[in-house]
Amino acid sequence: MYTTLTVNAKEFKLRVIASAVVALEKQLGGKNPLNVLMAVENGEIPSVTAVLLILHAGLQKFHHNMNWQKVLELYDEFVDSHSRSRRFESYQPHHKHRTLQA
Asked: For residue range 23-72, what is the model confidence (pLDDT) as tens digits?
């Protein structure tokens, strides 16, 4: 079983295997990766580093050529693609036509 992540029309299969989980737990200071992600349910936001470590581990089974640097670049690409697709309107009661673009 796996899940997919799509960034700019590129699809990545994500599956964390046992050896990756063991290494990942060490990188996360002994924390279970699921606990890190599920903390969101309690209103906590995991660190970007923790999320990217989990993403890196998830990519290794099907995309073993994705090293840490490529994961950082993938994250930047994801953030950039979402920034360009959103427009932020400024709150100007008398100037409703003004918008800011990210």
From this structure: 999 999 999 999 999 998 999 999 999 999 999 999 999 999 999 999 99
User: Could you state, in order of their start, the residue ranges of all structural domains in the chain?
Assistant: 3-101
DSSP-assigned beta bridge partners for residue 89: 99
Neighbours of 50 (CB within 10 A): 19
Beta-bridge partners for 6:
11
SS (H, E, C) the chain: CCEEEEECCEEEEECCCHHHHHHHHHHCCCCCHHHHHHHHHHCCCCCHHHHHHHHHHHHCCCCCCCCHHHHHHHHHHHHHHHHHCCEEECCCCCCCCCEEEC
Give residue 89's pLDDT: 40
